[in-house]
Write a structure and sequence with these properties.
2 copies of one chain form a homodimer. The first copy, chain A, is of the alpha/beta class and about 375 residues long. Chain A contains 11 helices and 17 strands. Chains A and B meet through β10 of A and β10 of B.
């Protein structure tokens, strides 16, 4: 196959230059199928969040497995998905400002677009943009179910829903209630309890919507940490997991139903790094620091080298230190895998995925929505 | 001028969509000139570090002010500089692996290239690549002056220097001794003391080089926190400051010669963000989180709104909270400036600078070396 190789495709993983963002293609596929199977069994729609993967390549894998569409966090991400042919996108976040509203509205010419709202002025501006472009935009009222970030309080949802109902250009579809912080509560039991408390907040708003005769066609929320408890509760019509496709150190450590490791999904995302300096027997330096591994969720995890640990050594360096008992050495030029602590923000540092199966590089996928923070 | 506007150029800063990375063009110019003036007065070359700005636009401003060239941390950054016409580049970091060595060697066809080394095998591979491409690569022996990252110990520098001297394809130019951590020591006196201790380590290696008859044509190191003490010591032929052009919250807080704020250079880099949600009177949400403001040096600083403070609210959100006494309110759609805690890693999240003078957007500059971590 060597004569067909392009940028190392068809060659071994060990030949990839570093730092590089590796995706285990087969583990990714199994994770997508596991979540799809959960959706079929629980009778809930799966709308995976593209803020994690940032590419329509994976979006289409998820849709092919049965996903109802995609979530995006930013208009710029939604543009990549729509341009890539995704037909149903929920911008699960508030959109403010004329430039973004115009961009969002024109996407509705190609795909079914829904957006979260939490302020009457923002909805009015959204409706005006929709009318200007002669499209209809779906709307879900965003409810603060305990996160303390965006969203109206459950008791205020009906008032905003009624405001939406009176506007031309927007169509009220239901409610969103997402709580990011509880996705990472440690311990299955504690996480389940937090998930039920968040669901109860959203349930109050759903009940009020139904009593007021407002649409509840879409009830959306939940993430990779609460998908099971919230997704099987009967409250949600769809759930929004993102990180389950890749996992990361932070998610692996939240604990599962039966053990310390959260094993519902497999780690499928790694950074390949090279030993670029070997100054001491118990300390070597990797070519991967803050610009290769995000640190908002704490340190990354060195794999395959028991007894050696990774710490950030600056923007471009990682310091690998050996505990007293570790036997293996690390040689200049050696390549090692590091698991990111947070997949979403680490992916945002790269322009492409290096996708492998077994020991072979099989594809390079562009991370087209990387950096599209507007 | 409106009819000439392109992407808002010629228009007001307030019209820029967010999150956006703002550069104060005039403050940037003053910072560049201040460092250039220091170099002229102290008789030391200024070789600014492009790991900060990542664009040949600013590199050329620095060279026009008298800089001897540029530093880069990665071959990918050096490629952008050389393609942009920078004629003298020091890769102030170890380069390991055949792909990078070939890329580095071919740059020497266009510009004068120097690279840091700390291992005999790495130098031998470097020399082989240089011979393969029929070029000469300059080399400085990297000395660990206390950082504990890359570099040889001062007592081992001569042995490596002699190894370099025996190889065809590489030319020994001198020594590098850079200590990143001391740049941010709080308090002018303590920082100066730490700088002198690092310089003493490097001096030992310089003395040994001279006794051995090895080249000391280039003695390079120092950064924006130690430029004055190290740059005026007589030890260095050139210094490597990067952040001085922009400053950031971390640098401003290290303390100056006479006060709590380090004022040798002016803040010139900001993130413009929009209030996207106003859920409570004492809490609003910005559209700028971990993907808009790096957090490896702690939280960013909200400007222009006394009594309100910024904390990260996730990848795409910032939570702005009001202390009890703050009078001003913050309205939906309002735009505010946030100072990054660390300029280098925040810049790495953006594809372009929005450059302004006064209240007018005057240019958009590509951050061409963003993400070039290989």
């Amino acid at each position: 196959m060597d004569d067909l190789a392009f940028e190392g495709i068809g060659g071994p993983v060990a030949a990839i230059d570093t730092p590089a963002l590796l995706v285990d293609h087969d583990a990714l596929g199994r994770n997508i199928e596991r979540m799809a199977e959960f959706g079929r069994t629980a009778g809930v729609g799966i709308r995976p969040h593209a803020k994690t993967h940032k590419t329509s390549v994976i979006a289409h894998m998820q849709v092919a497995a049965g996903a109802v569409g995609q979530c995006a966090q930013k208009v710029g991400e939604a543009e990549i998905l729509v341009a890539g042919g995704v037909k149903d996108v929920l911008v699960a976040n508030e959109v403010v400002g004329p430039a973004k509203l115009h961009r969002l509205a024109t996407l509705a010419r190609q795909s079914r677009i829904t957006v979260a709202v939490d302020h009457p002025d923002a909805v009015s501006a959204l409706a005006e943009a929709a009318r200007h472009h002669d499209v209809s935009l779906g709307v879900v009222v965003d409810v603060d179910v305990g996160l303390g970030r965006c969203g109206v309080l459950p008791g205020d949802a009906v008032e905003l829903g009624q405001h939406v109902s009176q506007l031309q250009g927007v169509e009220l579809r239901g409610l969103q209630g997402y709580h990011g912080a509880i996705q990472h509560v440690h311990g299955y039991g504690q996480r389940a309890e937090a998930a039920r408390a968040a669901s109860a907040q959203l349930q109050a708003a759903v009940d009020a919507f139904q009593q007021a005769g407002l649409a509840t066609e879409v009830i959306t929320g939940a993430g990779s940490g609460t998908y099971e408890v919230q997704g099987s509760s009967g409250l949600f019509t769809e759930i929004q997991p993102g990180s389950y496709i890749f996992m990361d150190r932070q998610y692996c450590e939240v604990g599962g139903r039966t053990g310390e490791v959260y094993e519902d999904f497999e780690p499928a995302l790694f950074v390949l790094a090279t030993v670029m300096s070997t100054p001491a027997a118990d300390r070597v330096v990797l070519d991967a620091g803050y610009k290769a591994l995000s640190n908002d969720a704490g340190p990354a995890l060195l794999l395959d080298k028991p007894g050696w640990t990774y710490t950030y050594g600056g923007d471009e360096h990682g310091i690998i230190k050996r505990a007293g008992s570790a036997a293996a050495s690390m040689a200049l030029g050696e390549k090692v895998r590091v698991q990111p602590s947070h997949c979403d923000t680490t992916i945002n540092l790269y322009d492409r995925y290096h996708v492998y199966s077994g020991d072979e590089l099989i594809a390079i996928w562009p991370i087209a929505a990387r950096g599209r923070s507007q």
